[in-house]
Amino acid sequence: MIKLIAIDLDGTLLDGKKRISERNKQALQQAKAQGIKVVLCTGRPLRAIEPFLHELELQDEGDYSITFNGGLVQKNDTGEVMERATLEVSDVQSLVALAEELDLPMDVLSHDTVIILDPSKNHKTLYPELSPLLHRETAKVAELPADRLYNKVVVGYHKDYLDEQIQKIPATVREQYEVIKTRDNLLEFMPKGITKAYGISLLAKDLGIEQEEVMCIGDEENDLPMIEYAGIGVAMANAIPRVKEIADVVTDSNEEDGVAKVVEKYVLR
Questions:
Q1: Which residues form the signal peptide (predicted)?
Q2: Active site residues
């Protein structure tokens, strides 16, 4: 029996206009009413998903989210961090040096703030536009204090140029960090071993939920680990081919209430 549903946002729960359909909303609210943990699992900070948590009525005591691609496990009602894994300032400095070599913009996330570092002279970051609910500040990498929290480093830029530059990332960087595309125009760097599956596994352990009692639903590269981890791994019809290959179930697309349909079929009593 499924006791926890972990759900990606973009391309999964949200349609192309970043909306939650009424059928998806009702299915998830019904799951919560039956005692099932409904957990949004995203690369975004908690602040950036608060409108969706409010809409789904997931801001009570006992509601949780996995944020920063598994880097934080948080309580939705208070924001309290239950589990965390973060970068050091030296990691940020090394990645900014890489961005300078590749002529890419780069920013770093610190809780609900995007720090715009601007290492590229030719390409302006798109990340603040992708996450408009976050606070913004600008800084030089040499000014970043060692004792600040750094959740992840991001590159938000146009898909074609970004994809070209991704091919130039050295293998040594990939060995040191999780390097994942979370949207067509967004590349993220996380501590090695930190994935959505990692965050979900920590939350499940905290709640006494077994791996086989977890359903995970997603569509993108950064969803692969959680779909492999899940008792029931679900790919959207619009998912990338690798996600569909490893999934136990392929549901309808994010434009066709795919989340609701798989929850109705496999979870709701």
A1: none
A2: 8
Q: Which of 191, 218, 239 is the last residue of a domain?
A: 191
- For residue 104, what is the domain's CATH number? 3.30.1240.10
**Tokens for 165?**
């530059």
CA trace torsion 68, 180, 16, 122 (10° rounding): 100
Q: How confident is the model at residue 265 (pLDDT cuts 50, 70, 90)?
A: very high
Contact 99, 120 (CB under 8 A): yes
Range of the domain at 97: 89-191
Q: How far apart are CA 89 and CA 198, in angstroms?
A: 22
Q: What is the pLDDT of residues 46-90, one digit of tens each?
A: 999 999 999 999 999 999 999 999 999 999 999 999 999 999 999
pLDDT digits (tens, 9 = 90+) for 102-140: 999 999 999 899 999 989 889 999 999 998 989 999 999
Return the pLDDT at 255.
Answer: 98
| Single pTM value for the model | 0.87
If one counts the domains in the chain, the total is 2
Is pLDDT at 269 greater than 90 in this prediction?
A: no
